[in-house]
Amino acid sequence: MNTVLEHRTWRYATKKFDPSKKVSEQDLETLLEATRLSASSYGLQPYHIFVISDQETKEKLKPASWNQSQIADASHVIVFANATDFGEELVDDFLTNVGETRNIPMEGLKGYSDFMKSKLLDLPVETKSTWTTKQAYIAFSNMMQAAAELKIDTCPMEGFESDKYNEILGLTEKNLNAAVVLPIGYRSEEDDTQHWAKVRKSKETLFTHI
Asked: pTM to 2 decimals?
């Protein structure tokens, strides 16, 4: 089996983490950098990622996560928070970064700026929030797969109360919303689900070649 498939076969939604095992700083930095390099629409990355290792904070988040043990037992809890609304600053900040990184005068980016703003700024707030959530999920998926390459276990989690996360982490005043959560760490030997065979649709059912 090639390594691409090996990593994805090894990965599973970890139900019980070993709280005594922590992700090293080196592996964490690799994981975060892999996530930073994720694709996003226009390259705008309209989200923020919270990396939570503080045990007290994890314990506060657990009741807001349907009391799932992974929140308290994982080495870190990663919260992907999408921007709930945005204005010109999203595009302006990005193009300032583009200009500085690629040594391009800002006037040379005006056409691209006008194009992005024409496509994004007049969208309804609800549509903006849906779009930013989709972008956060791209980064979330990349982190999950990068973790598998590092043999770091994860549990993708939508079973939580975002409004309570927003309150605990102070997200609302930052124009952010907790979109999806990824506890990371190392599986417990007591987690029987690690031995279960993956259940997925067959290739014939899932794919249509045209």
From this structure: 0.97
